[in-house]
Write a structure and sequence with these properties.
Elements (H helix, E strand, L loop, with lengths): L21 E6 L8 E5 L2 E6 L4 H8 L3 E5 L4
Parallel strand pairs: 1-4
Antiparallel strand pairs: 1-2, 2-3
């Protein structure tokens, strides 16, 4: 019996919405911005350097929640 593949590396079933990524980065009191975290829910999928072209684009578009540690 042939069963559909599921799990890592397999495409999502048709009709499922694409995963929703969230982006977050910490800003140190010195003003330095740490790596941008890309997450699906609570799962960390990867980090992105803020000075990279992709990181700059995400920041410019306002898609990154920046948490200022100087305000804590």
């Amino acid at each position: 019996m042939d069963r559909p593949r599921t799990g890592a590396g397999s495409p999502p079933p048709p009709g499922d919405p694409p995963p929703r990524f969230t982006y977050r980065a910490l800003r140190l009191p010195s003003g330095r911005l740490l790596a941008i975290e890309e997450r699906i829910g609570r799962r960390l999928t990867r980090t992105i350097r803020p000075e990279s072209p992709e990181g700059r684009s995400l920041l410019r578009e306002g898609r990154v929640e920046v948490i200022d540690l100087g305000e804590l």
